[in-house]
Amino acid sequence: MKRLFILEEITAGYRKMTTAGKNLVCENVILVTHSMGGLVARLAAKIDQEGRQRILGVAHGVMPATGAATAYKRTRSGFEGASAVILGWDGADMMATMAYAAGPLELMPFPNYNANFDPYQTPEATPRKHWLRACHQDGRNNEISYDLGTKDFMGSIYLSDEENVWWRLMKEELINPAGKEERAKKIKEARKNGKVIAAENDQTTDFDKFALLMTKTVQKTQSELSSGEVDYYHPVTYAHYAADREQKSFNEVCWRNTEGFYRLSKNDMPLDAMRRITPGSVPLPHKDETPDYLLGKEISDDLLGKVTLQLEDKNDAAYHYYSATFKIDKPREPGDGTVPACSGAAPTKYCRQIFRHEGTAKGQPSYAHVPSYNSPIAQDVTVYSVIRIVMETHPAFSAKGQPEEMTTEEEP
Asked: Could you tell me if 120 and 129 are in contact, meaning their C-beta atoms sit under 8 angstroms apart?
């Protein structure tokens, strides 16, 4: 089996060093991870048995343990703030990049992702909550919410290529726009010279290539780390995460309708011909009804998180359509700005200790996801975790050389 780690190369380098005329002893390692590095460490420790024996323990920092809904939001509408200039301004930038990037795609919510998870509550009090939904207000100003897709995230969201599934992750026309132009140019030139090139006979679509990456790599990785209700973590695991209300995060993505529903004549389709439907003048969907917009035809997508849908008027089908616009709502739950607390806390029952940082609300420093290790509190709990791993696994500190059982959640 191909070795996933270069542990031998790393430890051999230290063994060549000397101190006081003697070579250093270095056979094992402690892994300290950041963000998705935690997923890499977990996967490697699980499938590389030889490597796992040399890992004394793992200290995870701000790990998206079960994924993050942020990945979907950014794929559909781009990054936020200054990061957008480099990482992706809108959905067109992001889809063309993400479709070929297995690593970032592995950040998509896992099958066991629970937008409702709270380690302080019982499982009965925090039933699994779907992370993708659409919301609108009915004629009585009640908010109505519907799940988009099913519990099969892979089939109903990530790999859907149906046009009426307007909430799908990818749009094929945006996956490889430059590649389409280049291939068409090559085919045209070849035909001029009476030749046929491989690209002309290749029936594999760009979406097929994306789907293959998702099933062969992303789905496989997620299933290795989470099979049913059991997740894999190294037996000696410590972790810390943020549940900071100053660092709002997407525990879920909500496509929200705030502009109401509009009537549009079939004979007069321009959007400026629409007029607002006031509550009462048109029967809006209520809680016990399935709204038409779940199967609406997409009229436009600004690729910044705003889609407009065309819906048929059941009461006046011969003459009118309805139109409704949905926007991705802002993040509302605590986290670190990228990883929501529900995912950061997911390893709780598998950890020797896990540290929850709530920022200034608890008198603690507030930190964002990327520079989290710049924060003194993140540094402190990581050093503490490394010391604990040494004490629990080194024979000098443990008569049996085995760690003691201990699982608590702390707020230093």
From this structure: no
| Inter-residue contact 132 to 69 (CB < 8 Å) | yes
**Phi and psi torsions of 200, nearest 5°:** -70, -30
CB 13 within 8 A of CB 19: no
Q: Within a domain: residue 407?
A: no
Question: Domain end: 273, 302, 331, which one?
Answer: 331
Question: What's the number of CA atoms in the CB half-sphere (13 Å) around residue 236?
Answer: 25
What predicted TM-score, i.e. pTM, was given to this entire model? 0.84
CA–CA gap between residue 10 and residue 22 (Å, rounded): 18
Which residue range forms the structural domain that includes residue 256? Answer: 113-149+252-331
Q: CA nearest 388: which of 30, 54, 26? A: 30
Per-residue confidence (pLDDT) for residue 13, from 0 to 100: 84
Tokens of 183: 């291939």
- Which of these, 20, 15, 223, 270, lies nearest to 110 by C-alpha position? 223
The verdict on residue 299 lying in a domain is yes
Say how many C-beta atoms besides its own lie within 10 A of residue 288's C-beta: 6
Residue listed under structure tokens 């046929």? 196
| Rounded-to-10 torsion of CA 291, 153, 345, 76 | -70
Find the distance separating the first CA and the last CA of the chain, reported in whole Å.
Answer: 42
Domains in the chain: how many in total?
A: 2
Residues 144 and 259 in one domain: yes
Residue 264 located in a structural domain: yes
Cα–Cα dist 296/266, whole Å: 15
SS3 388: helix
Question: Where does a domain end: 276, 300, 331?
Answer: 331
Torsion of CA 330, 324, 153, 339, to 10 degrees: 0
Q: Work out the angle between the directed axes of helices 70-77 and 91-98 (0-180°, nearest 10).
A: 120
Max alpha carbon distance in the chain (Å)? 92
Residues 84 and 211 in one domain: yes
What is the reported pLDDT for 113? 94
Overall average pLDDT of the 129-149 stretch: 84
Cα separation, 173 vs 162, whole angstroms:
13
Task: Say yes or no: 210 and 265 in one domain.
Answer: no
Say whether pLDDT at 268 is over 60: no
Please, which residues have CB within 8 angstroms of residue 355's CB and are 6 or more apart in sequence? 239, 240, 241, 381, 409, 410, 411, 412
Residue 239 identity? A
Residues 134 and 274 in one domain: yes
Mean pLDDT of the chain: 83
**Amino acid symbol at 155:** G
- Same structural domain for residues 139 and 166? no
